[in-house]
């Protein structure tokens, strides 16, 4: 069976994991949405009730679907660049021009400058944190974030995984009903994936992949602020969070210690602090396409987050441009064992 791919349905616990209070113990209001982009758009609709300026400062390295929420909402957008450690290069001169700042971490790591966030907050800028890449990291949400959005579909098998948190007060907008067609296609994808992981039947793997992408492309066309389904919320509340964190950290550490040295293939984050739960194991590869081909031939399915969004003139942001062109990641999540990580190491040893 391949190492990688999206998540199937997984077993849950009888006890609740207190995910919301672990992420944001002082949450004022919480909503469950159909997806992460629905969650962001839901928060934006609430923010726009008072934000008449509507000028956003967003990461130049991000998903098209995230930035697309701000395009759809009619915001003017400034972008901030990054260095090669995925640290944002904020421009303080823009603080008087903006009304909104989006901050996020990457692959489990929180890399932004909290002092810049505080300066924005002091100037009346609304702060939203997208915790999708740091969803399980014990560091939790930034204390200065007014809104928190997360997509848990990147971490567990749920058909709707968006959560929106407003730190102070209640949301003054209401979700619209979920799109049942989109959810049913997602359900098919996860069920087929679960059967594939049990049987290794490649026809099921192809069927699950086709359904997954059908649902994804549909979501890009229809996303708004659709609510999530009750079963997914129950899964989120009862997911074996601590076990997942433990296994992800153990797998990541094993790869750090055992992947062969290769100057053309470098870990983005060569250390694993205690407050990090890795999303994937990210790498910078000088010849990414060659490495991806090698891995796929050996049943390892890498990820590339993301293609350059069409909204960005990427040549103006050379740091982000380098990241888009060179970053890739391999799975080290809770489905996989140390033996699986050794298989990854063995495949990397054969790469020249």
Task: Please write out the topology.
Elements (H helix, E strand, L loop, with lengths): L18 H5 L5 E5 L2 H12 L7 E5 L4 H10 L2 E7 L5 E2 L10 E5 L9 H9 L3 E5 L16 E5 L10 E5 L13 H20 L2 H21 L7 H9 L2 H18 L6 E3 L13 E5 L2 H10 L20 H9 E4 L7 H12 L3
Parallel strand pairs: 2-3, 2-5, 5-6, 6-7
Antiparallel strand pairs: 1-8, 3-4, 7-8, 9-10, 10-11
Helix pairs in contact: 2-3, 5-6, 8-11
Provide structural commentary.
38% of the residues lie in helices and 14% in strands. It is an alpha/beta fold.
A few lines on this structure:
With 352 residues, the chain is of the alpha/beta class.
Distance between the termini: 24 Å
Q: Walk across the major sheet and give the strand order.
A: 1-8-7-6-5-2-3-4
Kindly state the percentage of residues in helix. Answer: 25-40%
Q: Can you count the helices? A: 11
Question: On the 0-100 scale, what is the average pLDDT?
Answer: 96
Order of helices and strands: HEHEHEEEHEEEHHHHEEHHEH
Percentage beta strand:
5-15%
Total strand segments:
11
Instruction: Say what oligomer this is.
Output: single chain
What structural class results from the helix and strand content? alpha/beta
What is the molecular shape?
Answer: globular
Sheet with most strands: 8 strands, mixed
Radius of gyration: 20 Å
Q: Runs with pLDDT <50, length 5+?
A: none
């Amino acid at each position: 069976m391949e190492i990688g791919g999206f998540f199937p349905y997984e077993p849950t616990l009888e006890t609740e994991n207190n995910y919301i209070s672990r992420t944001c113990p002082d949450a004022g209001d919480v909503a469950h949405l159909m997806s992460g982009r629905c969650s962001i758009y839901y928060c934006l609709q609430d923010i726009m009730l008072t934000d008449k300026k509507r000028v956003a400062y967003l990461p130049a390295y991000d998903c098209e679907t995230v930035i697309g929420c701000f395009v759809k909402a009619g915001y003017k957008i400034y972008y901030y660049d990054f260095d090669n450690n995925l640290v944002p290069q904020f421009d303080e001169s823009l603080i008087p021009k903006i009304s909104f700042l989006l901050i996020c971490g990457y692959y489990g790591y929180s890399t932004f400058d909290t002092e810049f966030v505080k300066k924005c907050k002091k100037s009346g800028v609304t702060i939203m944190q997208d915790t999708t890449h740091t969803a399980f990291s014990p560091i939790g949400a930034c204390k200065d974030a007014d809104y928190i959005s997360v997509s848990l579909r990147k971490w567990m098998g749920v058909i709707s995984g968006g959560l929106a948190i407003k730190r102070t007060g209640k949301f003054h907008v209401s979700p619209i009903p979920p799109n049942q067609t989109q959810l049913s296609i997602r359900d098919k994808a996860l069920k087929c994936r679960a059967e594939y992981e049990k049987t290794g039947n490649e026809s099921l793997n192809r069927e699950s992949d086709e359904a997954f992408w059908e649902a994804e492309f549909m979501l890009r066309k229809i996303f708004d602020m659709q609510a999530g389904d009750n079963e997914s919320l129950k899964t989120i509340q009862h997911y074996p969070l601590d076990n997942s964190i433990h296994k992800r950290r153990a797998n990541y550490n094993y790869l750090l210690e055992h992947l062969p040295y290769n100057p053309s293939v470098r870990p983005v984050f060569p250390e694993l602090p205690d407050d990090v739960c890795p999303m994937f194991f990210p790498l910078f590869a000088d010849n990414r396409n060659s490495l991806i081909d090698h891995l796929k031939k050996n049943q390892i399915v890498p990820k590339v987050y993301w293609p350059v969004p069409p909204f960005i003139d990427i040549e103006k942001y050379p740091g982000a441009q380098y990241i888009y062109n060179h970053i890739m990641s391999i799975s080290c999540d809770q489905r996989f064992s140390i033996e699986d990580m050794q298989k990854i190491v063995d495949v990397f040893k054969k790469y020249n």
